[in-house]
Amino acid sequence: MNDILSYKILQQIEAYEEIFDIVRIVEPITKKIIKYKDGKIIEDSILCYSGVLDNKECSNCIGLETLTNQKTLMKIQHVGDKMLLVFTSLIKGSNGNLVLELIKDITEGLVIETVYRSQEHELQNIVQDLNTLIMKDPLTNLYNRRYMDRMLPHEISKCNAKHPLSIAMLDIDHFKTINDTYGHNVGDIAIKTVGAILLNSIRNETDWAARYGGEEFLICLPNTNNEKAYKALERIRKTIEKTVIRFEDKKINITASFGLSTIDSNEFAVNDLFKYVDNKLYQAKEQGRNRVIK
């Protein structure tokens, strides 16, 4: 089962754990499960998720139904005096299909936004919906602060001399002037435009970007040294510089300032890394904006 746990899936599992009480990958037929805790993969056997509470098997196995019918499913399951919300979704692996189980105790009230859908809803869309609810910024579709706070320590923990980690902070230059001159709708367009550029400019399998807040963004470049990161950020900066926002009869140019910091040790604290990169961003602004300072 281990080969199913790609880097992307591990990222999702870690983010889901912020919301759900039980997150695991299941082989419903063989009754085997994989859990990912504290950076370790744990294999185990159990009848079903209800066995976590009362050691009994459900009469209607939602995981088995997902595996058989290749559909993403959701149900509310009563287990003793508990009420569980259960999502199951198919994961296609190189050695066969597995099931992702996301389980939340909602005895005291449902805390996850409900997403209504038709019966024809594609199975992968519910996973995208969950990602949106849990990890994504709704304006830009970049990752949000929850994801960033969860993943940065994980990225730092993997960092070493052979696998440096580069982090960049950027913000849109003169953003307040854009809002004051053209209105907040244009400000939102500028934020969305930069978000789209970031999504189209990073390596999908390793890099990620998040909206830090307002007009500020973070870019995470694992296994990337300072020089390579600088070149990548320069390409992004130039793309933003060439971008024109059209609003009514106006053409609005935007630019962004970048601060870059690269580390090669897992002994750095997140707050210290933020201080380094924020200082570089401050230097970029002081030196005239629309530049990358490394």
Query: Residue ranges: pLDDT <50 for 5 or more in a row?
Result: 110-123
CATH C-level label of the largest domain: Alpha Beta
Please state roughly what percent of the residues sit in beta strands, choosing from under 5%, 5-15%, 15-25%, 25-35%, 35-45% or over 45%.
Answer: 25-35%
Largest sheet: 6 strands, antiparallel
Number of helices: 9
In total, how many beta strands? 13
H-E string: HEEEHHEEEHHEHHEEHEEEHE
**Average predicted confidence as pLDDT:** 81
Distance between the termini: 41 Å
Q: Could you say which overall geometry the principal axes of the C-alpha atoms support?
A: globular
Strand order of the largest sheet: 3-2-1-6-5-4
Helix content: 25-40%
Q: Briefly note the CATH topology name of the largest domain.
A: Alpha-Beta Plaits
List keywords for this structure.
294 residues; alpha+beta; Alpha-Beta Plaits; 6-stranded antiparallel beta sheet; 5-stranded mixed beta sheet; 9 helices
What features would you describe in this structure?
The two termini are 41 Å apart. A hairpin with a 2-residue loop joins β4 (73-79) and β5 (82-93). The chain contains nine helices and 13 strands. The radius of gyration is 22 Å and the shape is globular. Residues 110-123 have low confidence and may be disordered. α6 packs across α7 and α7 packs across α8. The strands form three sheets. Strands 3-2-1-6-5-4 form a six-stranded antiparallel sheet, with helices on both faces. It has 294 residues and is of the alpha+beta class.
